[in-house]
Design goal:
seven-stranded antiparallel sheet, alpha+beta, binds zinc ion, single chain
C-alpha cells in the first residue's frame, strides 16, 4: 500500500467492501471505472476548432467526435458524426453521415443516434430522424440543428459558441499527439490522405 495508511487501519478500502453494516458487498462506483478506462488513455489532447473551415473539414472527415459548448450557459454536448456502414446490396444513399450524441458516462459506448446528414446538390443538410430515441425538441437535438445551420450551412462561428475536438483524429479516431494535429483535429497521415482525396 502506498496510501500512507497504517497496516492496522480499520477503515481501509478492503474492510469497507467486505464488512459493510448489513454484510452486503459495497457496490463499486461505476464512475471510477469510466474514468480509468483504457479509452481515456487513447485520447490525446483536446483542441478548439477556431474557424468554420476547420470545423467543416473535421466534421466530414469520417469519424469525428466534437463537443459544442455554449460559453454563456456552459451547456455542452458531445456529438459523433460518422460515415454509415455500406448497404449489403451495394445501394447508395443520400445519407452520408450518421449523427449521434453522447448520453451517458462512457465516452466510448454511450452514444445515441440523433439524425442524418444528407448530401444535396446545393450543399449539406441535416435532419433529425424519427428513428432516434431522442426527441426532436430535446436540447441536444436542437443544439445540433442550430450548430449545423450556423457553422456548416452559413459557414460562420458564433461568438457564444466553442467547438472542440476530443483529442482523436476526425478521420481515423486515433489519438492526436502532434501540435499541428491538435490544432485542427486531423492526424498527419490522414491529412495527407484527405489532401489527395480532394484533388
Ligand atoms: Zn487519422
Amino acid at each position: 500500500m502506498t496510501n500512507g495508511k497504517s497496516v492496522n487501519d480499520d477503515t481501509s478500502d478492503d474492510d469497507l467492501i467486505s464488512d459493510s453494516p448489513r454484510g452486503e458487498r459495497r457496490e463499486a462506483d461505476p464512475w471510477s471505472d469510466f474514468k480509468s478506462s483504457s479509452s481515456e488513455d487513447e485520447r490525446g489532447e483536446s483542441g478548439r476548432l477556431e474557424t468554420a473551415e476547420d470545423v467543416i473539414r473535421f466534421i466530414f472527415a469520417g469519424k469525428a467526435t466534437l463537443t459544442v459548448l455554449g460559453t454563456a450557459t456552459k451547456t455542452r454536448f458531445t456529438f459523433r458524426v460518422s460515415i454509415p456502414p455500406p448497404y449489403d446490396d451495394g445501394r447508395t444513399s443520400t445519407v452520408k453521415f450518421f449523427v449521434s450524441v453522447l448520453d451517458g458516462p462512457d465516452n466510448e459506448s454511450n452514444y445515441r443516434y440523433l439524425g442524418n446528414v444528407f448530401k444535396k446538390p446545393d450543399g449539406w443538410d441535416y435532419a433529425w430522424s424519427k428513428k432516434s430515441r431522442i426527441a426532436e425538441d430535446a436540447p441536444s437535438s436542437k443544439c445540433f440543428g442550430w450548430f449545423f445551420d450556423t457553422v456548416i450551412k452559413e459557414r460562420r462561428m458564433h461568438p457564444r459558441m466553442e467547438v472542440w475536438h476530443e483529442g482523436r483524429c476526425g478521420r481515423c479516431g486515433m489519438k492526436l499527439t502532434v501540435p499541428e494535429s491538435i490544432r485542427d483535429g486531423i492526424g498527419p497521415e490522414c491529412r495527407k490522405k484527405m489532401g489527395r482525396d480532394s484533388q
